[in-house]
Amino acid sequence: MSYALLCDHNVYSTVVFSFTEDVNLPGTPSADDVPIAGDGELIYIEQIHTMREYELTTLYVDYGHLLQKDDVLADAIQRQYYRFLPYLRKALHDLVAEYEPEYLKINPTSAAMDSTNLQSREFSVAFYHLPLVSAIRDLKTDKIGTLMSVSGTVTRTSEVRPELLFGSFICEVCGALVHEIEQQFKYTEVCLQRLFTVSFARLIAVVLPCPAQFMPESHLR
User: Fold this and answer.
1) CATH code matching the domain that covers 3-151, chosen among 3.30.1640.10, 3.10.20.740, 3.40.50.1000, 3.30.2000.10
2) pTM score, whole prediction
């Protein structure tokens, strides 16, 4: 599979989230009245409906399913997970838009009838049943950006604090407003080249509370 195909989010919708699994119950008398799941049921589409019902934002994917569908794609995701993560999330966003369109938006003002302050909901993809489980001490620099399953003992927990994912900045001199500035593992301001296309004024680092996007910093990426 070429790199160009790996950068097409439609590939992930077709390969990853379209997995079907047949469920065959044993023919015992006690199972006669139990409804059997239909052949070719899209289990991850059903999980999207469950996410809507229980207000969840993470879709859990069995890595073994991915290996069955396309082992080349599975290996690429495992080795360069951080590179392909945006395409996975875009594919999930498109599927939610197709099957549960009303679940795409949230209202931070908690006003049910206020459509002007609607904010997009952020969805995530998590994998389980990876073939290798590593220890905490195996987390070396060569593992940065890869997909890993880690096992360890939790000895202490801390308060969950929000992490800034995308910031919106405004210049206090000229009033220029710049959105969707991704925070690359640290506080990241607007690139000067991008700012100059709007104004030559110096950017004053002011983060707007909305529509900046946050997530709990305890989530491992």
Assistant:
1) 3.30.1640.10
2) 0.69
